[in-house]
Design brief:
The complex is a heterodimer of chains A (180) and B (284). Chain A is 49% helix and 19% strand. Chain A has 180 residues and is of the alpha+beta class. In chain A, a hairpin with a 2-residue loop joins β1 (66-76) and β2. In chain A, α3 (86-97) runs antiparallel to α4 and α4 (100-120) runs antiparallel to α5 (131-143). Chain A is elongated. With 284 residues, chain B is an all-alpha fold. Chain B is built from 14 helices and 2 strands, in the order ααααααααααααααββ. Chain B has helices at 2-14, 21-41, 45-51, 59-64, 68-73, 75-91, 96-112, 119-130, 143-176, 179-183, 185-191, 207-227, 231-251, 255-262; strands spanning 270-272, 277-279. In chain B, strands 1-2 form a two-stranded antiparallel ribbon. In chain B, β1 and β2 form a beta hairpin. In chain B, α2 (21-41) packs antiparallel against α6 (75-91). The model of chain B has no long low-confidence stretch (mean pLDDT 91). Classes of the chains: A alpha+beta (180), B mainly alpha (284).
Chain lengths: 180, 284
């Protein structure tokens, strides 16, 4: 009898937890999407819940507008090379071979360039003095740019695809002869 | 309608199911996914650690990510050990120990590989966390404790299904309340995402086509969570969902996200033990 009671109680607790979870999820959806008050974002519990228990939303409209493409050109024997887009190269390789390693490498390169753009918008410190730039520079010199390059130019082209039209913007960093 | 759902919840929690193939295939699908992820990330992780290292500021974080100390000491040992746990879990019965270890491995790996991660890592870790409570092994000797174990397992299974449909519902509602999605502008933006959209696909730049596609996505993402519980719609929704995810894998070049959203479909399939066939219509 006691055993039946405890089973019944446990069932009740489980049902309650599941129902409260659904209600909480619906409240969060209403708060952040329908009412857009984002009041619950202030609490630690809802912030953890939104990140780990109810991930998403995926493909929200504000996250699919901007594209960041990293291009590098360098001077070799007094001639500038054609700009190389390292993340594009790895991404295209994934598209033709379906090798996930290329896709992961492309994502790493995208993150390094995206962090640079993000840091540029945060303060007025010159871009070459930023930690994000030094990480990207180190990566490019180790993986992309040959050792005999004389000067280097790095471009991050931002393309905005919004309102059925495209707009582009370019961030350009020039490193003079032998990277002074 | 609500009382119908409630009745279904109680029945699902209390049922004494002997055939648990859906949960087993689901968990092992997650393990296989993680194994492949480690294989493909193997050569990238040293670069991530060099050029985009993570930072652990508090003592609590250092404790949570304790296995990463091994990665810093010897990355190969860390990855080999992770794979070993995963392979063992793949070939033994679902149990609490390997489930817990695998969740911890995956959670730490996501931190380590943050620059290459996306939503699929969050979904994977969520399901691996819930799957800690899914197993029935080691099994208690007492009938009473076994019943408790059964209720916890059934509740976790239901929790997996609920969170899965909630992920769709959240995305669907976000799109429904977004002007860019309602007008089809979001599809235009997606077709110009350089590192997502398949470059060989030539899509006509028609506003009407973009709008139709956007509404199909909205209708599916809101319809799926509501109708997948109804047996007569389930098979159709799972097939449409599978096509939807394959499109994401191929045309949007997010294979990890597409696959991790396909694996939970297994939870909605009933595997019939008597004639070894699968069905979609016996859950409620």
């Amino acid at each position: 009898m006691n055993s039946d009671n405890s089973i019944r109680k446990l069932t009740q607790i489980s049902v309650t937890v599941l129902c409260v979870n659904v209600l909480f999820a619906l409240i969060i959806i209403m708060d952040s999407i329908v009412v857009k008050s984002n009041l619950l974002d202030l609490s630690k519990i809802s912030s953890i819940y939104r990140t780990y228990i109810l991930p998403g939303p995926f493909f929200p409209s504000n996250r699919i507008i901007d594209n960041y493409s990293l291009y590098v050109a360098w001077k070799e024997n007094d001639r500038w090379t054609f700009p190389v887009c390292a993340p594009c190269h790895n991404f295209n390789e994934y598209q033709s071979t379906f090798n996930m390693t290329s896709l992961y490498r492309s994502r790493l390169e995208q993150t390094l360039s995206f962090n640079l753009i993000l840091s540029q918008n945060q303060d007025k410190v010159p871009i070459t003095g930023k930690q994000e730039w030094s990480k990207l520079k180190q990566y490019l010199f180790d993986k992309v740019i040959p050792q005999n390059a004389d000067s280097v130019q790095v471009f991050v082209i931002t393309t905005k695809a919004k309102n059925f039209s495209l707009k582009t913007d370019t961030l350009n960093v020039y490193l003079g002869p032998r990277y002074d | 309608m609500i009382s119908g759902y409630l009745k279904y919840v109680i029945e699902s929690i209390q049922k004494d199911e002997t055939d648990r193939r859906a949960s087993v295939y689901f968990c092992k699908g997650l393990y296989l996914f993680l194994i492949l992820k480690i294989f493909f990330l193997w050569n990238i992780i040293p670069d991530i650690m060099t050029y985009s290292p993570y930072e652990l500021s508090t003592l609590l974080r250092k404790l949570v990510y304790l296995p990463l100390q091994l990665a810093h000491w010897d990355l190969t040992s860390y990855l080999v050990l992770s794979l070993l746990i995963l392979f063992i879990a793949l070939f033994v019965k679902l149990n609490y120990f390997t489930s817990l270890l695998i969740f911890w491995v995956s959670f730490c790996l996501s931190k380590l590989t943050q620059p290459t991660s996306n939503g699929s890592d969050l979904v994977l870790n969520l399901f691996l966390f819930i799957s800690i409570f899914l197993p029935h092994h080691p099994q208690f000797h007492s009938q009473h404790l076994r019943s408790i174990q059964n209720i916890i397992s059934n509740s976790s299974l239901l929790f997996c299904k609920i969170q899965f449909v909630m992920i769709y519902f959240l995305s669907g509602m976000d799109k429904l309340f977004s002007e860019a999605w309602r007008s089809g502008d979001a599809i235009f933006s997606i077709t110009h995402l350089q590192f997502y959209f398949r470059s060989s696909l030539l899509m006509p730049s028609s506003k009407s086509l973009f709008q139709i596609l956007a509404w199909l996505v909205i209708i599916f993402e809101i319809g799926f969570p509501i109708l997948v519980w109804v047996s007569k719609f389930r098979a159709l929704l799972l097939i449409v969902g599978l096509i939807f995810q394959v499109i994401i894998i191929y045309f949007l070049n997010i294979p990890d996200f597409g696959i991790i959203m396909i694996i939970p479909y297994l939870l909605f399939i009933t595997f019939n033990k008597t004639n070894d066939k699968i069905s979609f219509g016996s859950l409620n």
